[in-house]
Amino acid sequence: MIHYFSEKKYDQLVKNYIQYETNYRFIEEIGVGSYGVAYLIEDSITSSKYVFKRLKTKHRHKNSVRQKFRQEIQILKELELPNVPSFITSGELHEIPFYMMDYVDGKTFEQAIFQEGAVFTLEQSLQITKELLEIVAEFHKKGIVHRDLRIPNILLSNNSLKIIDFGLAAYIKENNQPEKLVNPKRAQNHSSDLYFIGHFLLFLLYSNYSPTKKKERSWQEELRLPIEMVNYLERLLLIQPGFSSAHDALLNLPLHVENHESFYF
Ligand SMILES: Nc1ncnc2c1ncn2[C@@H]1O[C@H](COP(=O)(O)OP(=O)(O)OP(=O)(O)O)[C@@H](O)[C@H]1O
């Protein structure tokens, strides 16, 4: 028999399932994405927090979406890195797949910049980019490209970076030729992550920018960065020939960023 569940009705089923059939306590819904819904739950004994993520009810019979969700789970299982939430378990509730992962208690760079007005200096921006590139190099070593490294998916938690949302992540296809990329964001190789990191770095640098002219200009004109920074950003953004890997981008990071400047906010 095919059941139809509205999102609201299914939310209630999830709450009841967590409350009465698991050792967890339901806390709240934390987000509705394009194809999933995420809830915050906690272990009733240890009080450790987790995220319960499930597919939207309207996608339950779409094979392509189910396959994407399975891949997201598989990739999270394979990554097992300190900067990525650990996979806990997965299953199905009334034919709708879900999985659980560690909750990252931190704030996203989107919240930090746009809600709290955090400002990053050039040195801090480079330090954060360096740490991000180190994490991303680990993903690539495991054959995985994230493909959605935007400010809402990069968090600062206990002064270290955490990456979430592997919904668009993919297995690397080595035969992609970077110079022939039509859409770098969707590339199935390192270029996609480096391209997003270029935009991420621009967000950090713009946090320190106050417009002096009414007319919007290009980032090259507005930010007035040292030439090696402009070249570096242009290589990440593929305006100039890109880096051959995340490791290559790390080796070419401009300026001296070894003196750890804290980036607390
Ligand atoms: N492991 C986690 N720890 C803390 N917060 C998380 C975690 N995973 C997801 N979130 C938060 O839950 C919300 C929903 O995230 P999710 O990745 O499901 O979808 P989304 O990013 O909103 O949308 P889409 O899947 O369309 O990209 C977001 O606010 C995200 O910050």
UniProtKB/TrEMBL annotation:
<dbReference type="InterPro" id="IPR011009">
    <property type="entry name" value="Kinase-like_dom_sf"/>
</dbReference>
<dbReference type="InterPro" id="IPR017441">
    <property type="entry name" value="Protein_kinase_ATP_BS"/>
</dbReference>
<keyword id="KW-0418">Kinase</keyword>
<dbReference type="InterPro" id="IPR020635">
    <property type="entry name" value="Tyr_kinase_cat_dom"/>
</dbReference>
<dbReference type="GO" id="GO:0004674">
    <property type="term" value="F:protein serine/threonine kinase activity"/>
</dbReference>
<keyword id="KW-0808">Transferase</keyword>
<dbReference type="GO" id="GO:0005524">
    <property type="term" value="F:ATP binding"/>
</dbReference>
<keyword id="KW-0723">Serine/threonine-protein kinase</keyword>
<feature type="domain" description="Protein kinase">
    <location>
        <begin position="24"/>
        <end position="265"/>
    </location>
</feature>
<protein>
    <submittedName>
        <fullName>Serine/threonine protein kinase</fullName>
    </submittedName>
</protein>
<feature type="binding site">
    <location>
        <position position="53"/>
    </location>
    <ligand>
        <name>ATP</name>
    </ligand>
</feature>
<dbReference type="InterPro" id="IPR000719">
    <property type="entry name" value="Prot_kinase_dom"/>
</dbReference>
<dbReference type="Pfam" id="PF00069">
    <property type="entry name" value="Pkinase"/>
</dbReference>
<keyword id="KW-0067">ATP-binding</keyword>
<keyword id="KW-0547">Nucleotide-binding</keyword>
<dbReference type="GO" id="GO:0004713">
    <property type="term" value="F:protein tyrosine kinase activity"/>
</dbReference>
